[in-house]
């Protein structure tokens, strides 16, 4: 029906018809970065029209997972790179969320995906660097999404042509 949002089953069927699959972060392994190709970046690259605007969903999915109510979320970051999303879900180190978030952030800032400008790249990167230095203040899923969104927006802005 026009104006209605398609449910997860309809979306999964449509994606399947395009040769794509829906992946939920809860299904990914923990304690190591997982790379997922960025379809948004590939499409943008192929369009090549300088007058075309850019838009995407950022770091969150518009589709909620069916049947999942409230669950304790692992420290998770969705980190944008030129060609892929780097997904960090941390479970193994330390029992407290603060310890796990600290370890995740400490790991991220040592990887090649960390921007050369470090914490100056975006507000989100500054927050990640701060958590890498101390285990206090791990934040919440809303904070992790905000850090990833901040980095994503800065990354996309850096890739747009000047004046675009």
| Backbone structural class | mainly alpha
Indicate the proportion of strand residues.
5-15%
Q: Kindly report how far apart the N and C termini lie.
A: 36 Å
Please give the number of β-strands. Answer: 3
Mean pLDDT: 74
- Uncertain spans, ≥5 residues at pLDDT below 50? none
Number of separate helices: 5
What does this molecule look like?
There is one protein chain. The protein has 164 residues and is mainly alpha-helical. Helix content is 37%, strand content 9%. It has 5 helices and 3 strands; from the N terminus they run H-E-H-E-E-H-H-H. It has helices spanning 8-17, 39-47, 97-108, 123-133, 141-159, and strands at residues 34-37, 76-80, 84-89. Strands 1-3-2 form a 3-stranded antiparallel beta sheet. A hairpin with a 3-residue loop joins strand 2 and strand 3 (84-89). The longest helix is centred in the last third of the chain and has 19 residues, at 141-159. The chain is globular. It starts with 7 loop residues before the first helix and ends in a 5-residue tail after the last helix. The model has no long low-confidence stretch (mean pLDDT 74).
């Amino acid at each position: 029906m026009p104006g209605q949002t398609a449910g997860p089953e309809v979306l999964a069927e449509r994606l399947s018809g395009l040769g794509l699959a829906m992946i939920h972060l809860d299904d990914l392994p923990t304690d190591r970065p997982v790379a997922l190709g960025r379809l948004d970046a590939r499409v943008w690259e192929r369009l090549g029209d300088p007058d075309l605007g850019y838009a995407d969903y950022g770091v969150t999915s518009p589709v909620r997972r069916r049947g999942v109510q409230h669950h304790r979320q692992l420290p998770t970051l969705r980190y944008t790179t030129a060609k892929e999303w780097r997904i960090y879900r941390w479970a193994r180190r330390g029992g407290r969320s603060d310890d796990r978030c600290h370890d995740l952030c400490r790991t991220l800032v040592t990887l090649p995906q960390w921007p050369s400008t470090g914490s100056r790249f975006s507000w989100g990167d500054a927050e990640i660097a701060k958590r890498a230095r101390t285990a206090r203040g791990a934040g919440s899923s809303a904070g992790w999404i905000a850090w990833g969104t901040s980095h994503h927006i800065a990354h996309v802005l850096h890739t747009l042509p000047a004046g675009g």
